[in-house]
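Final report, Chapter 2: Outcomes

The project's central promise was a pipeline that accepts a single protein chain and returns its three-dimensional structure in a standardized token representation, suitable for archiving and comparison. That pipeline is now operational. To close this chapter, we reproduce one record exactly as it appears in the project archive, with the input sequence first and the structure output second.
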Amino acid sequence: MKTDSIFYQLFKTFPEAFFDIFGGEATEARNYNFASVELKQTAFRIDGVFLPNSKMASKPIYFVEVQFQKDPELYARLFSELFLYLRLYAPTKTWRAVVIFASRSMEPTEIEPYRVLIESKQVTRLYLNELGDVTEQSLGVGMMKLVVETKKRTPELVKNLVDKTLSEVTNKALQKQVLDLIETIVLYKLPRISPQELAKMFRLSDFDIKKTRYYEEVRKEIKQEVKEEVKQEVKEEVKQEVKEEVKQEVKEEVKQEVKEEVKQEEALQLIKRLLQRRIGKVSQKLHKRINRLSVEQLENLAEALLDFGSEEDLATWLQNNLQ
């Protein structure tokens, strides 16, 4: 599952979820803008930063890290990026870091160099599988917990989250975004789920998966894959067409070459017979030189040999015409 993109989308769409997860006030989300920040001239990118609005200068900056797989260098990377951000942007406000693990087993065991920071009030570590029952949690926390829940419990939890969304999110546009996000999580977790099962989870009587955003995303991916396959097939077809054209051209060229060779051979045999009659036996050395003559040169020799009286005349002619 693409957890990084899911959590980025979650915090971007529903920032209240971030403040819910560590016990903050959901209303705090109004005072922040969530973004991914690239640290210039470095290879670092901070995936999640909650920056206070300009009117909330006293509020802390929140750095977010989501970890769903083992990474022994997690804290080294996190604090390197965090302090590099502080150096580059020189904010005057305080900061907080929130690290969200799928489970406690995902956390690095070697933390001694960072223990002072990790155990300070500025760093909060959360483990999604320890958050308790989704029904007891806020909508935002429930959506995050859904990511790590078992496939068996997913249908029940989705129904609960859908009910919460419909009852708690009054803004229709935001409501649709939240439902789309829940749908995305479900379809990443259960890629083979049937439209009927998905409709049941979302309490829909007439569900058309083709109308979902997820379907459109998958369709784009599949279209690109098919496009590459078709492109390769077309290339092969074009190569085959070109091969046939070239084969025909080469065939014609070979035919012409064979004709020239046959014509030369016939002319050569005729010349040798005429020379035999005209001047008698010709030396092996001169025979080799005659064999090197082109068809045109052989035709010229046929005319010239009528005036030959000896082998010397032939040698002289070859000397003048065979360079």
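Archive annotation: The chain has two domains: 3-207, 248-321.
This record, like all others produced under the grant, will remain available to the consortium after the project formally closes.
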